[in-house]
Design goal:
four-stranded mixed β-sheet; single chain; 32 strands
């Protein structure tokens, strides 16, 4: 048997914020904000100690025109106890974006450090000092992004596989291997992506000015991914399963490499000493522009953020997954499944900040400051991440029989990683001496999770009776879901003032016993006195995601019945209740040890936990 598919999809999208069309920054006299292009209009961001004010959505405005093409063919052949399958797939993705979201966006941002209105050597400056610096009009850092070229990328993906399912008596064996080939992403026309020469701080443009289109970047041609699965029917009531698979990271390079300098110019101007201002509100943001066209090697401005792929580390990483499971039928039509499930990620893609500075050296201690006068972020992009997941998973199931279905599941798991995403993400610790501190519980790690779902045909009424009461009470079905989860972890941060480094996260000191005090808005979640700000030149003794926040539980229920009408017409009545306990699902507490609301919970997680109900009618004909 042969089956083939061909596909085409198009993302044609644009959007902008509610402040679009007015140059608010220029209207109040802040130089360098906004610009002549209407897409630069809107409210700049003011970082004055309060919640950031202005248009904080740096990804607005945007235009996207992304066509994608795909084709796949699969061949299946049966031969005795074997089922052979092989096939191929090809994908073509194009990306065309105007979206200067690198940095702070096209309107600009001005920040005001509390140090500028604080006492050096005295109390640690807080947001009141920041607001005072704002009132004085003294900036500590100003930023702006500019779209110099429309970002256009082109990317192919090829895949081929062969597999066999072999059944012999009580054993089923699945074997397969997949070959993946990901050619290097390119730009429209004859352009390639860009690479930063770290020895000269020149940006090499692929395919321009005599440069090779791949600018020295090479992708792997040996990505073979094996798969193995074994099922053993031990007896009529017991089945054992074992599986292993390797998958290469399918991340499209177009997203993280779609357009840093010179396509998007994201400039940051910062004072060299945190106790001195960079400038004033009147001086605003310096004007800047991009390089002339046709140059294959262009100097990188010292204020411009840059991401460059690592020529020695762009081979795709991989994810290994494995499981061992036993399923057993129990009395009363129940079955239980117990499994160990694990995954391991190797060489996940992320940014490594190269322009770091050691403790005590501040901005002028950055790696590239002395040779190039460079203070801006300089990111080396490659496969630097690792992660692991291990879990015990239990599932109890009763299929729908005699009017009742039950399905429950419990997971005891642990996830360790270095960052919670892959591709467009950085790490908290970039310097070699503290890089290993990144490997810690994942931000989404939940150690325990339990869910229960049921469907119950209520035992009221009889099919044979024709009374009105019987017609009203029969055939109602009750459904429900119950879930309870433990909390996710968070990092307790501290001030970087004493440490005075760049590129790494400062954390608080743990100086006492961690005691749980509350679970709401009335009192701290953990005892704040167990933590202290670090006021000497060293890193805090707590780590990334060391402490866990509140968990939550939730119960949803629905009651419905379908009434047959004339012919094929039916009317369904449904009553639904969500979060019936009406219990708040608290977010993690404030994690900054220097904050006045440290360890206080001030928000709920997505969904919130508020009770709501609805009534629905559905007419089928």
């Amino acid at each position: 048997m042969i089956d083939s598919t061909v596909g085409y999809s198009l993302l044609d999208q644009w959007g902008h914020g509610p402040d679009y069309g007015t140059n608010y920054g220029l209207e109040v006299g802040v130089a360098g904000t906004n610009g002549p292009d209407i897409r630069q209009s809107g409210m700049p961001v003011w970082g004055n100690g309060m919640s950031a004010q202005g248009s904080t959505d740096s990804w607005n405005p945007y235009t996207r025109f992304d066509p994608s093409y795909s084709a796949a063919t699969n061949v299946t052949k049966l031969s005795g106890a074997h089922t052979f399958r092989f096939g191929a797939a090809v994908d073509r993705q194009q990306l065309n974006h105007w979206q200067p979201e690198i940095g702070v966006g096209p309107r600009g941002r001005l920040d005001f450090s509390g140090n500028l209105a604080g006492l050096r050597g005295g109390q640690t400056p807080n947001f009141y000092n920041q607001y005072a610096a704002f009132l004085l009009g003294l900036t500590s850092q100003v930023q702006k992004s500019y779209q110099w070229e429309t970002m256009r990328t082109r990317e192919w993906r090829f895949g081929f596989y062969v597999g066999d399912r072999w059944q012999h008596r009580r054993v089923t064996l699945d074997l397969g291997v997949r070959y993946e080939y990901f050619p290097l992403v390119t730009r429209a026309g004859d352009r390639g992506v860009e690479v930063l020469d770290l020895n000269t701080m020149d940006v090499l443009l692929g395919g321009v000015g005599g440069n090779p289109r791949n600018v020295g970047l090479k992708t792997s041609t040996t990505d073979f991914a094996p798969r193995l699965g074994v099922t053993w029917r031990v007896n009529q009531r017991t089945v054992a399963r074992v599986g292993y698979g390797l998958t290469y990271n399918p991340l499209p390079f177009a997203r993280p490499l779609r357009g840093f300098y010179p396509l998007t110019i994201a400039n940051t101007y910062v004072s060299l000493n945190s106790w001195q201002p960079y400038g004033t509100l009147e001086s605003g943001i310096p004007e800047f522009t991009g390089p002339a066209p046709g140059q294959g090697r262009v100097p990188l401005p010292s204020e411009t953020t840059m991401r460059t792929p690592d020529p020695d580390n762009v081979h795709r990483g991989y994810i290994q997954s494995w499981n061992v499971a036993v399923e057993r039928r129990l009395p009363f039509d129940m079955s239980v499944n117990a499994a160990y499930v694990g995954t391991k990620t190797t060489r996940g893609f992320a940014d490594l900040e190269l322009n770091v500075s050691p403790p005590g050296s501040g901005e002028q201690g950055r790696v590239f400051f002395k040779p190039f006068g460079r203070t801006a972020s300089t990111l080396l992009w490659g496969g630097i991440l690792r992660a692991q997941y291990h879990s015990m998973q239990l599932q109890l199931t009763r299929p729908f029989k005699n009017g009742l279905l039950i399905r429950g599941a419990y997971t005891l798991g642990k996830t360790l990683n270095m960052a919670d995403q892959d591709g467009w993400v950085g790490v908290l610790y970039n310097s070699p001496e503290v890089f290993d501190r990144n490997y810690a519980p994942a931000g989404f790690d939940r150690r325990h999770g339990f869910t229960l779902a049921y469907a119950y045909q209520l035992p009221f009424g009889h099919q044979g009776k024709t009374t009105l009461l019987n017609a009203l009470v029969r055939d109602w079905q009750l459904n429900g879901t119950y879930a309870v989860y433990t909390g996710t972890p968070f990092t307790v941060t501290a001030s970087n003032t004493a440490l005075d480094q760049r590129g790494n996260q400062q954390t608080a000191d743990l100086i006492g016993e961690v005691k749980r005090l509350g679970n709401g808005i009335d009192e701290p979640y953990y005892d704040p006195s167990a933590f202290a700000n670090v006021t000497v030149q060293r890193y805090g003794n707590t780590g990334r995601n060391q402490f866990y926040g509140p968990g939550y539980w939730n119960y949803n229920m629905s009651l419905f019945r379908t009434f047959p009408l004339h012919g094929r017409k039916r009317l369904q009545v449904k009553l639904e209740g969500f979060s019936l306990g009406n219990n708040p699902q608290w977010a993690n507490p404030n994690n900054s040890v220097t904050s006045g609301s440290f360890m206080m919970i001030t928000a709920t997680r997505g969904g919130g936990g508020a009770r709501n109900a609805r009534v629905g009618l559905r007419f089928e004909f």
